[in-house]
Every structure is written in structure tokens, then in C-alpha cells.
Amino acid sequence: MQTSVLIVDDEFGLADVTADLLKDAGYDVVLAINGKIGLASLAARHADIVIVDIMMPVMDGPEMIRRMRADPALASIPTILMTALPEAIPTGSAALQDAVLVKPFSLAELLRVMARLLGTR
Q: Where are the domains of the chain?
């Protein structure tokens, strides 16, 4: 069974390219354009790992992760927070996400982080 990945990002170009690269690497990928839709996607379909942008309309990444951590069915899903602005990472959020990637990042870097997080489950 393929590892399922949920990518939550309102930057369609980056999300599409990342999704295509992960699909080529053998992952099952679903996209969502904001945290609210991302949570709805998780309610409808399991994901093994979530990659979420910090800044999005409707619901941002940190709020989505807070809601995931508050839900026993979602709390253990590893999360990667990504941002183009490292200064936008909320202080005190280290307990929320499992990893942070600063855009632009390489596919190799993303795959390394994903392997580390998925290996700890």
C-alpha cells in the first residue's frame, strides 16, 4: 500500500510540482488549498503525513496543525510545516509540527524529512 501524503498549500504551482514529484517517487498524494479543506480531506481520507504551508487564507498551517493535535484521530499524523519566510514560524510552535522546511527546498531534502518522520511511527 502506498504512503499517502496530504499537501496543503495555496500556491498551486509549488503544490502541483511537489505533488507530481512525490507521485513519481511512489507516494499517493492529495492536495488541499487551505487548512479548512485540509482538515475536511483528513476527515474523509487517511493521510500518513501532512505537508502544510504556514500562510494561507481561510485557515493557516499552524491553526490546522493545532486542530489536528486536538483531535485524537489526527494527533499522531506527522506534520511538516513549510514556509518561504522563516520569520513567520510562530514562536513556541515547536511542539506543533514535527519538522520545518524553508522554501525553496529540494525534493531530496523533503524525502529525507519524510523518511525520518515516517520511520518513527
A: 4-119
- The DSSP output letter for 11 is -
C-alpha cell belonging to residue 42:
483528513
Q: How do residues 8-34 score in pLDDT, each as one tens digit?
A: 999 888 899 999 999 999 999 999 999
Q: Could you report the per-residue pLDDT of 75-104, keeping only the tens digit for each?
A: 999 999 998 877 666 666 556 888 989 988
Q: How far is CA 119 from CA 8, 64, 77, in A?
A: 22, 23, 12
Pairwise CA distance, residues 87 & 27, whole Å: 30
Please provide the CATH number assigned to the domain covering 4-119: 3.40.50.2300
What is the rounded distance in angstroms from the CA atom of residue 4 to the CA atom of residue 22?
10
Find residue 80's DSSP bridge partners.
Answer: 51, 99
pTM metric for this prediction:
0.91
Residues facing 116 on adjacent strands: none
| Cis check: omega of the bond before 78, within 30 degrees of 0 | no
